[in-house]
Amino acid sequence: MTDDRFIIGILVDNAAGVLTRVSSLFTRRGFNIDSLTVGTTEDPRYSRITISAHGDEAIRKQIIKQVRKLYNVKEVKILPIDNSVKRELALIKLRNKPQTRNDILSAVDIFRCKIIDFSPNTLCVEITGNSSKIDAFITVVKPLGILELCRTGVTALERGCVYLNSETKTFEEEICEEDKGEK
Amino acid sequence: MKLTGAQITVETLIEQGTEVVFGYPGGQVIDLYDALYQAGDRIHHVLTAHEQGASHAADGYARSSGKVGVVIATSGPGATNLVTGIATAHLDSTPMVAITGNVSNAMIGRDSFQEVDITGITIPITKHNFFVKHVEDLADTIRTAFQIAKSGRPGPVLIDIPKDVQTGLCEYEPAPVVEKEKQRLPKEFKIEWAAKMIRESQRPYIYIGGGAITADASKEIEELADRIDAPIGSTLMGLSAISHENPRFLGMEGMHGHYASSMAQNEADLILAVGARFSDRATGNVSKYAKKAKIIHIDIDRAEVDKNITSDLGIGGDLKIALQELLEIVEPKKNLEWDRRLDQLRKEEQEQFQKNTSEESLTPYALIHEVQKHTEADMPIVTDVGQHQMWVAQFYRFHQPRTFITSGGLGTMGFGLGAAIGSCLATGKKTVLFTGDGSFGMNLNELATVSKLNAPVVIFIMNNGVLGMVRQWQNLFYHKHYSQTTLERKTDFVKLADAFGLKGYRITKRDELSSIVAKAMNEEEPVLVDCLIDKDELVLPMLPPGGSFDDIITLKEDPS
Predict the structure, then answer these.
(1) What is the pTM of this model?
(2) Which of A82, A88, A121, B308 has its CB surrounded by the most CB atoms within 10 Å?
(3) What is the pLDDT of residues B508-531, one digit of tens each?
(4) Alpha helical stretches, state H, B204-258
(5) Distance between CA atoms of B46 and B23, rounded to whole angstroms?
(6) Which of B7, B11, B22, B51 is labelled catalytic?
(7) Pick from B557, B552, B556: nearest CA to B537
(8) CATH assignment at residue A148
(9) A-chain residues within 8 Å CB-CB of B120?
(10) Residue A161 class from Cβ within 10 Å (0-12 exposed, 13-18 middle, 19+ buried)?
(11) Is residue B181, in this structure, part of any structural domain at all?
(12) Which of B345, B370, B400 represents a domain boundary (last residue)?
């Protein structure tokens, strides 16, 4: 893993074709995407895209500025890596053999993941965590026979009372502001 | 009042101030054309020979007038024929609204006859585009399209309207002309910082681009140049923003720029970039670009700051306002040593020019110079793309903003004739088109349009029988391997003009020049003039590919 990796949160209109516009911009400008996730948000008008990418400071700034120009993009921000919660989910289908079952079970136990499907010949593991944790788990179970694997890519939120949607003015935030005032 | 989607489209165009639309009918826009027919006394439709010509005409119209150019095409091939025109407008930041018909919603996605995903195709070459699914959204979508097209850094917007939306009925309420989106003001501390950098500089250089024209900032730029005693250089797109009569104006810089302008930029210790984007044609090799200079970059599009060149200070916002604020605080200064150096560079440039030019032959310079004698300051000068374009950029002396209409960023051969039609209609002035036999051959079908409109467009074809710009590269850098650049066509352009119903003249040698140019320029109808120039004329100076301003080629004998 390179340390020039960064995560971008993008709030976009919940409309057809928006994901294409964002991803097409990355292709056109030659920016690399490591992973991309998209889904609905607390506000039905908007979807949220989380993109994990890498590049130096100049590339980072260009990405933000270019993405911001898209008509359907409401907010875009680089999430501070040390002050964000980041999660990824992976489903891994493994060969279910008596010889390897115990190794798999202990790995599942150590990594605190779950077995969510069990059949005579296969079993399926669900693992959630930082991408590095998932990388580590995959390294461990790879020799035991991975049959299929899929990862969601990183999704992330900044910690504390910081919101991508600038319209979000919640009760908690108001409390936060009051707290700051007292300090 | 309930109207059909087609009628709503036309009403909204009129409501938004559209007087002229360019286009070509087809199966999926029959309803739209029916609405145009009904509104014929309130909106003028110009039928071109090809949708590409219509797109360039809308572009030329927008560049000359500053208004939003509108083009209409049918689905499928009609829509794809707009693509080059839209991309041209996109790279040169021209406000344009392109309207395409499409098959009915129910037929979408079935590869129906003349169905194409034009919104998908044009994502990377529009500021934004819309597929209108419901007639209820139509009027507001068109208004939003106009707003996007003209706000901030302008650009093209496409609206794809399926047939059932054109026939659907909906209530229409007229609305006022949409305002441009408000831009954030430049930050005060940055203006102060810029003033400090200017104060500390000894060799300032103002580098302007197309943004200077869009922002209508000519006056502010000239005032600043006087105040801080700086020369002004321009990109191709910035030409006409500053009058060539201004003694501070050094002309175009860059790959084929004026020697003094490029060298001054190379030697400057401060470059103030105003609405320019440091294109590779303007900078040469970026790693060797203006090494001695600090760079202040003012642009309405913040993404341009630090995109191609890392600046020392980036100022986002409207140029005109930024310059006005700068003028409020920047102190007058004199740079005597720099002035002397600039005089010397101008002198060197003049000497090179004398060496490269000829008094006897029919040179591009002689033609441009002769045409200039018959033009007025406000007449649009349009070009195609290639050697002739660079010669016009170098030798024509512009006096008013928006009078130089050329495809800069995309370099679209075939742009000129359509654009000239648009410029001519936008200004109501006689319009000069300089083109080459290569470029002209690409879209000469629009002669039919010029002829039908009887638009006073005077076409000068610099005819050298070759694709001159590529040939020049082959000459200098590819061992004179003239691969596919010798046209060897048998086209008789005078007869061609006649066939399309235009007057045609031919200039074969220098001593015919003044009489025929005078005759052509005095016509009140479209004219084509075939000018036979030498195929080995070079555009000089030239930066070799990958080179910097230190490697500039200035003389014919020096093709190292």
Answers:
(1) 0.95
(2) A88
(3) 999 999 999 999 999 999 999 999
(4) 210-214, 218-228
(5) 6
(6) B51
(7) B556
(8) 3.30.70.1150
(9) 17, 20
(10) middle
(11) no
(12) B345
